[in-house]
Amino acid sequence: MMGLVEKLDAPTQTMSDMLSKLQAPFLLFIRVYVAWVFLKSGLHKIGDWDTTLVLFEYEYQVPLLNFELAAYLATFGELVFPVILIAGLGTRFTAIALSFINIVAVVSYYATLAKGAGLVWHYLWGSMLLTTVLYGGGWFSLDYWLKSKLGRNHGD
After folding, report:
1. What mean pLDDT is predicted for residues 65-90?
2. Tens of pLDDT, residues 92-145
3. Quick one: which of 11, 71, 72, 95 has the fewest CB in 10 Å?
4. What three-state secondary structure class fits 125?
5. Under 8 Å CB-to-CB from 37, ≥6 apart: which residues?
6. Sequence ranges of the domains in the chain
7. Contacts of 146 (CB under 8 A, 6+ apart)
8. Closest to 132 (Cα-Cα) out of 156, 107, 105
9. Does residue 117 sit in helix, strand or coil?
10. What percent of the residues of the chain are helix, what percent strand, and what percent coil, each to the nearest 5?
């Protein structure tokens, strides 16, 4: 006979099981959404490189870097890391790399972001990247596939 605790826990366990099945698609959604945001930014930068250089020289105040080097690094990161993130290869490392770009963007452009709602978006993207760092890529990632092929699948 089922005890009282088991009876009370049964609906919770059923809901938990259903929600667990949504974790991998949700992690994929987060990766694709955040990657698309950064990729669009990188594509915009290379689409008008002269304007990008002017913005990095006069508008964005990237600490410790020459404006031209900062423009190249930011554009490289926004074009390469999102593609790797979508694939789910080195997911946690790639999310950390994009988090760094996000943090530098906030620090470099804080005065303008603080005046508008733009800062809220950076918080959202940072939270999504943190979720990816904490939970990994899930089932729909090359990380998961490689771990399963190498026999090192530890529930990631």
Report:
1. 97
2. 999 999 999 999 988 887 755 556 667 889 999 999 999 999 999 999 999 999
3. 11
4. helix
5. 125
6. 22-150
7. 89
8. 156
9. coil
10. 80, 0, 20
Q: 3-class DSSP state for residue 58?
A: helix
Q: What's the pTM?
A: 0.84
Confidence of residue 16 (pLDDT cuts 50, 70, 90): confident
Question: Which string of b and e fits 104-118 if b means at least 16 CB within 10 Å?
Answer: bbbebbeeebeeeee
What is the sign, positive or negative, of the torsion defined by CA atoms of 13, 27, 147, 149?
A: positive
Which one has a higher pLDDT value, 45 or 2? 45
Structure tokens at 46: 């290379």
Q: Identify the helix (H) or strand (E) that includes residue 126.
A: helix 118-135
- pLDDT higher at 9 or 59: 59
